[in-house]
């Protein structure tokens, strides 16, 4: 309550109002200091940027094949070494022919999902017969990532984008520094060390992605996910596979990798578990 | 009396961690000017540390029938800069008007060269980490090579190699193109000779530089326009 009748009816001085949430009540810091030090947000606190990821997802794999693109990612969101959330979907359908997969910070991924969904709704509302295809979404995502790194406030992710556009299969990735690239096979995070050699070898042996059937590609991807689960300490046995073909997008229900591995030989070995 | 200076304590500084917006994606580029032609070449490997992100990514872009730009360094910066050059050739920052639409013609190689220098210097205090080589034909139809540092210093030269294997290739070019430390007289090289020197440079650099390899893209600029040749390099 303002007890000075001369102030009544006048606009409130927000800097002096201690109950406001925005702009945050910052009467603890003198106005001059605020302007110099960039005090813009929470009361009396400086603006902060992400310096490291918090809740993270591990590898995303992508592989082109004859009729489309396959992507795979497990369902784990880790908090450091803690397996914090075990049923998180890291593959997201952006449009009828585009899927995004994310490794890195999960909250940044959720923000990007929101941006992409908003953009797709905008396109839908225009109702002009056009929509954003995979290469367009890739370009949009690249500008967002590059812009944020240029503000020294990056989105801490590596995104993989898969899709089909005008009969061409598309597989690309963008990292937190805004580096965009396309490749017949892509693996992020630990997968770049574990899965990339397997994927590239298979592609070389087949003589290119156009000689790879869906069955072969899927088998290869599952094998890569298995290796990632066995050796990447931040991975999970629960994973999903997305397929993008001219028929559209299908993201599988979560599968289990455990039945595919054999641990019985360890049963009677001393110091090997039980 | 107690000393106020804790001189015997080890000096410890707080560990600061700051986001580094730059990354060196490697790659080598090369351009040689001839009497009535210009050759611009670059490999297509995109690396980060010991990892190869992809084996094919174009580092050179045709800007007009007379000009090709090639860049190496931080790939995200290079791509952004290339995009901005292309935008400015339509809508110029230097003159606040659409260049092609205002002047009814495409920018000349020399005009693009000057514009690129300004664009790089405009970001003097948060530079584009990009090594640029601009190759093309000048107004008289002679081959022209313009080379830049990341903050916009530039000069016109006969030949230049930049990027991760530049220290391997440039001395070779000094000897073979500029006839440095040679007894023989300097003479004009034919397109065929220049192409052979270009290919030899890259196959040799690929042997020793891990950031160079996969494929070689060679742009040959003559009065007939721009021709693109592709060649395989070692993928190891």
From TrEMBL, chain A:
UniProt record, GO biological process: proteolysis involved in protein catabolic process
GO cellular component, one term: cytoplasm
Keyword Nucleus: yes
UniProt keyword annotations, A-Z: Cytoplasm, Nucleus, Proteasome
InterPro entries reported for this sequence: Ntn_hydrolases_N (IPR029055), Proteasome_beta4 (IPR016295), Proteasome_bsu_CS (IPR016050), Proteasome_sua/b (IPR001353), Proteasome_suB-type (IPR023333)
Location of region: Disordered: 1-26
Function: Non-catalytic component of the proteasome.
Name of the protein in question: Proteasome subunit beta
Organism: Actinomortierella ambigua
Gene (UniProt): PRE4
UniProtKB/TrEMBL annotation, chain B:
Pfam family, one: Proteasome
Keyword terms: Cytoplasm, Nucleus, Proteasome
InterPro entries named among the record's database cross-references: Ntn_hydrolases_N, Proteasome_bsu_CS, Proteasome_sua/b, Proteasome_suB-type
Keyword tRNA-binding: no
GO CC terms in record: cytoplasm; nucleus; proteasome core complex, beta-subunit complex
Biological processes, Gene Ontology terms: proteolysis involved in protein catabolic process
Family matches, as SUPFAM superfamilies: N-terminal nucleophile aminohydrolases (Ntn hydrolases)
Subunit structure of this chain's protein: The 26S proteasome consists of a 20S proteasome core and two 19S regulatory subunits. The 20S proteasome core is composed of 28 subunits that are arranged in four stacked rings, resulting in a barrel-shaped structure. The two end rings are each formed by seven alpha subunits, and the two central rings are each formed by seven beta subunits. The catalytic chamber with the active sites is on the inside of the barrel.
UniProt name for this protein: Proteasome subunit beta
Source organism per UniProt: Actinomortierella ambigua
Organism phylogeny: Eukaryota, Fungi, Fungi incertae sedis, Mucoromycota, Mortierellomycotina
């Amino acid at each position: 309550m303002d007890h000075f009748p001369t102030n009544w009816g006048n606009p409130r001085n927000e800097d002096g109002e201690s109950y406001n949430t925005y702009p945050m009540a910052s009467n603890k810091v003198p106005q001059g200091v605020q302007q110099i030090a960039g005090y813009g947000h929470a009361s009396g606190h400086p603006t902060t940027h992400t310096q490291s990821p918090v809740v993270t997802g591990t590898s995303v794999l992508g592989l082109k094949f004859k009729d489309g693109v396959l992507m795979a990612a497990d369902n784990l969101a880790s908090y450091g070494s803690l397996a914090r959330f075990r049923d998180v979907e890291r593959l997201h359908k952006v449009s009828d022919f585009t899927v995004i997969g994310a490794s890195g910070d999960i909250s940044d991924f959720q923000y990007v999902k929101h941006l992409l969904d908003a953009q797709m709704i905008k396109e839908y509302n225009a109702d002009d017969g056009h929509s954003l295809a995979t290469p367009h979404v890739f370009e949009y995502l690249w500008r967002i990532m590059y812009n944020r790194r240029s503000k020294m406030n990056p989105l801490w992710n590596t995104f993989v984008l898969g899709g089909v556009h005008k009969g061409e299969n598309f597989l690309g990735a963008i990292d937190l520094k805004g580096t965009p690239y396309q490749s017949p096979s892509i693996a992020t995070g630990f997968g770049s060390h574990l899965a990339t050699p397997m994927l590239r070898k298979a592609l070389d042996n087949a003589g290119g992605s156009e000689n790879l059937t869906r069955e072969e590609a899927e088998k290869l991807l599952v094998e890569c996910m298995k290796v990632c689960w066995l050796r990447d300490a931040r991975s999970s046995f629960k994973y999903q596979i997305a397929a993008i073909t001219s028929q559209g997008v299908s993201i599988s229900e979560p599968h289990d990798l455990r039945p595919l591995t054999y641990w019985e030989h360890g049963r009677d070995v001393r110091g090997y578990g039980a | 009396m107690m000393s106020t200076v804790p001189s015997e304590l080890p000096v410890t500084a707080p560990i600061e961690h700051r986001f580094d917006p730059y990354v060196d994606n490697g790659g080598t580029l090369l351009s040689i000017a001839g009497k009535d032609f210009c050759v611009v070449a670059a490999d297509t490997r995109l690396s980060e540390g010991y990892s190869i992100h992809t084996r094919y990514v174009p580092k050179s872009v045709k800007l007009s029938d007379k000009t090709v730009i090639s860049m190496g360094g931080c790939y995200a910066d290079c791509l952004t800069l290339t995009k901005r050059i292309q935008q400015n050739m339509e809508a110029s920052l230097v003159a606040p008007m659409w260049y092609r639409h205002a002047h009814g013609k495409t920018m000349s190689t020399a005009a693009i060269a000057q514009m690129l220098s300004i664009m790089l210097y405009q970001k003097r205090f948060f530079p584009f980490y990009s090594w640029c080589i601009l190759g093309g034909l000048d107004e008289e139809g002679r081959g022209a090579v313009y080379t830049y540092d990341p903050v916009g210093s530039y000069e016109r030269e006969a030949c230049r190699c930049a990027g991760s294997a530049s220290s391997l290739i440039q001395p070779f070019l000094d000897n073979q193109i500029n006839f440095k430390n040679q007894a023989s007289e300097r003479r004009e090289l034919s397109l065929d000779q220049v192409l052979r020197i270009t290919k030899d440079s890259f196959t040799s650099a690929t042997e020793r530089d891990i950031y160079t390899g996969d494929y070689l893209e060679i742009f040959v600029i003559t009065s007939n326009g721009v021709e693109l040749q592709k060649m395989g390099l070692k993928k190891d």
